[in-house]
Write a structure and sequence with these properties.
With 223 residues, this protein is mainly β. It is 9% helix and 30% strand. The chain has helices spanning 130-143, 207-213; strands at 24-33, 35-41, 47-51, 69-75, 78-84, 92-98, 103-106, 113-116, 150-154, 173-176, 196-201, 218-219. 46% of the residues are buried.
Length: 223
């Protein structure tokens, strides 16, 4: 059940460089094993953008994670993603995202944060509403509950069990919940207090150049 507005994310978690109400048009491509929904906004005024399939099958692939969806939208201060699994086999989130001026961002554990809501969503559950997501963001902010996500293999044909996801660069990594100890939260059945909320901060207009100077953002022309 693909949502039509071709779009996705972008961002960077450097607070001193953020702050504008709108960071401009962001595009990108994302998928999750198994389900996700995309939002943008600040700490409040969060808006729902779209998301992936809620069933087991894919819109254009064998599984709900096989084919990545793309979106284009006017980004607020943050990009948020709600993500959850079917509690079986494997779980993860991966994406490649473009900012204005051909700046590029991929999923990794350097510029994303995650909050485990403890609210159980499974296959067939609808995407959380913007109001529901905003309430969870408020809880995470108030309790300082954002953590660094776990990071798995990058997007190549050798990545078990997903292989290469078309439309996403090979330097993007699968990310998921913060692993307890040395646990592998990606491969094997598990419910890691899902759904999860991921966020990354979108630089204010003009901040992208400063980020690039720090070597945080990569450069690449759109395909």
């Amino acid at each position: 059940m693909k949502t039509f507005n071709r779009n996705t994310l972008a961002a960077i978690a450097l607070a001193p460089l953020a702050g504008a109400a709108s960071a401009g048009i962001v595009t990108g491509t994302i998928t999750a094993d198994n389900h996700y929904a995309l939002y943008t906004g600040g700490a409040t005024n969060i808006a729902y953008i779209g998301g992936g399939e809620t069933g087991t099958g894919g819109f254009n692939g064998a599984y709900n994670w096989s084919h990545a969806e793309s979106f284009t939208f006017n980004a607020g201060r943050y990009i948020y993603i709600a993500a959850w699994s079917d509690d079986a086999v494997a779980q993860g989130l991966i994406g490649e995202f473009f900012l204005p001026n051909n700046q590029r961002l991929t999923t990794n554990n350097a510029v994303w944060q995650v909050f485990a809501t403890g609210i159980d969503l499974d296959t067939g559950a609808p995407h959380p509403t913007a109001a529901h997501l905003q309430a969870q963001v408020a809880l995470a902010n108030a309790g300082d509950l954002w953590t660094t996500p776990g990071q798995y293999m990058n997007n190549t044909a050798q990545t078990n069990p997903w292989g290469k996801i078309a439309g996403i660069a090979s330097d993007a990594h699968w990310i998921w919940a913060t692993p307890p100890g040395n646990a592998n939260v990606f491969v094997g059945a598990g419910d890691w207090d899902e759904y999860l909320v991921f966020r990354t901060q979108v630089p204010a207009p003009g901040a992208a150049a400063a980020l690039a100077g720090l070597g945080i953002l990569g450069f690449r022309r759109r395909r």
